[in-house]
Write a structure and sequence with these properties.
- With 199 residues, the chain is mainly alpha-helical.
- It is 40% helix and 9% strand.
């Protein structure tokens, strides 16, 4: 998982959209665009056939006046279900927020896995457990994906950055770029989603 950057000029905020007042579908569509069709937690691609949910990171805020943009993330429905509700949330306190500036220093990517930079960091440990960032099946999927990407890169004759830019700019391949943090760290590249605006 990479740190989620919330937009200061988000239309969700500008239009004062409220989940409680029935704007869920509109919020989901705007989050999908902001997140470039990437699940906030698993970093898997959210395709047309994937059920996605507006996830309330802190479930105790859902349908309250305190619930809002900073608490909403678009995620795969399965991950939202497995994350659980209030009882599980309460067991994972205190917790690091997905938008925390130092998230990527505290939860480190290493060879397909997310490990703690400090085993005594309770907030980071709770986030990793709460969002199942240490799920073995997801770890394997990430490792195999990166290996396939590296194989394709080797055959392409391009540099890592050229290869990623080309895939993002191509309508045929843009949905094949996900697991963004793993891609950036394994290939030493920057995933520039601005390229999608020109396709």
């Amino acid at each position: 998982m990479r740190r989620i950057e919330k937009k200061s000029d988000s239309l969700i905020v500008q239009e004062s959209l409220s989940y409680r007042e029935g704007n869920g579908k509109q919020i989901a569509n705007l989050l999908r665009a902001e997140q470039n069709s990437i699940c906030a937690y698993t970093e898997e691609y959210l395709g047309r056939a994937d059920k996605a949910d507006v996830e309330h990171f802190n479930p105790t805020l859902k349908n309250t006046d305190q619930d809002g943009y900073q608490n909403w993330f678009l995620v795969k429905a399965q991950w939202n279900t497995e994350k659980g509700h209030t009882a599980r949330w309460l067991k994972h306190q205190p917790i690091l927020h997905p938008t925390s500036e130092d998230l990527q220093e505290r939860i480190v990517y290493s060879n397909g896995q997310y490990i703690l930079s400090n085993e005594d960091d309770i907030e980071a440990k709770n986030l990793r457990s709460y969002l199942k960032l240490d799920d073995e099946q997801l770890d394997k999927a990430r490792i195999y994906y990166i290996q396939r990407l590296k194989d394709d890169l080797a055959l392409s004759g391009l540099t890592g950055q050229e290869f990623i830019d080309w895939r993002l700019a191509s309508p045929v391949y843009k949905s094949t770029i996900y697991y963004i943090r793993a891609v950036e760290e394994e290939l030493n590249v920057k995933v520039n989603f601005d390229l999608l605006e020109h396709t």
